[in-house]
Design a protein that fits this description.
- A hairpin with a 7-residue loop joins strand 13 (306-314) and strand 14 (322-329).
- Strands 1, 2, 3, 4, 5 and 11 form a six-stranded mixed sheet that branches.
- The chain is globular and about 90 Å long.
- It starts with a helix and ends in a 10-residue tail after the last strand.
- Helix content is 40%, strand content 26%.
- Helix 1 runs parallel beside helix 3 (66-88) and helix 2 (46-57) runs antiparallel to helix 3 (66-88).
- With 368 residues, it is of the alpha/beta class.
- It contains twelve helices and 15 strands.
Length: 368
């Protein structure tokens, strides 16, 4: 038997073994995909991929082969991701608004393979997941300029869903008009209250009247369907294209760092996150005794957790009572996390762990 035949026999044996390992790997990838599907977690986790590539490349001793193995690794990962994308294809994603709204744009970025289902309000989008009509809801929780979206935080307080992801979407507001409209024609602007707030200086400068709309895309559609050339909408550039409107003025929001944080809500909590870059979310009320809030905050600090967000909101079920929304860096499943949660119960009348997310996973790197 010559060397060529020996090499071919070796290749055949290796290929057979690789086929068995491929099936085993894809079975594991499917399990990962099911976990992500149940919890509304995007397929791509670039930080995880980069770590795997680095670790696996170190297993190759022959430096000459490393570039080829890197190509092999990436191809294998792409096949696994394609399987997971196929599993998520057809899943219903709820959002508030209509096509072209910023929530729609966020849902498209996070779940490009899903069916994006429009609901007229935050509440209805949230309830759609609770009722099983949709697997996830993508809803805004905070804008860097206008602040928290209180109605969504209230749903987190009173509802049953969990947050399994939080993603930043840069918001650029524009003045949209029917084609042929001049600036001097405009008397009134229509948009979502937060968009109006984000553009308050611009609106005052031009002495425009304001009309509130349920969201920016609905405002754009209203302008497109109207014969009134004295009205304009404040919305995204992509919305202008969608409704055949003209952008009369670009980037009219006051802050050039205007960003909205969108959360992914699901029926199951993500409890398999790595410690690194993990953030968990607590909702709590404190005992009606002097110093309870201060003591609760002290517990968090004493247990070594950095609190990156703390907000109070009125409890709609009881006048003059408040609940607190907090985001903490770290792992709630660790020993110190469990200890902290137990100690918090001494000062909290109600305490809920309502979700966690990977702070390193952004709108950009889930699309790379």
């Amino acid at each position: 038997m010559d060397e060529l035949e020996k090499a071919r026999i070796t290749i055949n044996k290796v290929d057979k073994k690789m086929a068995e390992l491929f099936e085993k790997r894809m079975k594991a990838a499917k399990t990962v995909g099911l976990y992500k599907k149940e919890r509304g977690i995007p397929v791509l986790d670039k930080a995880r991929e980069d770590a795997l590539i680095t670790a696996n490349l170190s297993n190759i001793q022959n430096e000459e082969l490393k570039p080829y193995y890197l190509e092999f690794l990436k191809a294998t990962m792409n096949v696994s991701k394609r399987l997971q994308h196929d599993m998520i294809d057809g899943v219903n994603i709820a959002y508030s608004g209509i096509e072209g709204a910023f929530a729609y744009m966020a849902a498209e970025h996070i779940f490009p393979d899903g069916n994006h289902c429009a609901y007229p309000s935050f509440v209805e989008a949230y309830r759609a997941v609770e009722k099983g009509e949709c697997s996830y809801a993508v809803l805004p929780i905070e804008n860097s300029y206008a602040g928290e979206v209180g109605q969504v935080l209230d749903l987190l307080y009173s509802g049953s869903l969990f947050v399994n992801g939080v993603y930043d979407l840069p918001i650029i507001q524009n003045l949209l008009v029917k084609k042929g409209t001049r600036m001097e024609d405009i008397k009134t602007v229509i948009s979502h209250p937060q968009a109006l707030s984000q553009c308050a200086d611009y609106i005052r400068k031009h002495n425009f009247k304001e009309i509130q709309s349920n969201n920016t895309a609905i405002a754009a559609r209203q302008v497109a369907e109207s014969d009134d050339y004295t009205i304009a909408a404040i919305a995204s550039e992509s919305t202008a294209k969608l409704y055949d409107l003209e952008v009369l003025d670009y980037a009219i929001n006051e802050s050039n760092t205007n960003t909205t944080r969108f959360a992914v809500f699901a029926n199951s909590r993500n409890d398999k996150m790595n410690y690194k870059d993990n953030v968990f979310i607590l909702i709590f009320t404190v005992n009606n005794t002097a110093g309870s809030l201060a003591k609760a905050i002290d517990v968090i600090g004493e247990c070594g957790f950095n609190m990156r967000v703390l907000r109070s909101r009125p409890d709609k079920s009881q006048a003059w009572n408040y609940y607190f929304y907090a985001e903490l860096e770290g792992d709630s499943r660790s020993e110190k996390g469990k200890k902290m949660l137990e100690k918090l119960k001494e000062h909290c009348a109600m305490l809920k762990l309502v979700g966690n997310y990977n702070a390193a996973l952004t709108m950009e790197n889930i699309q790379e």
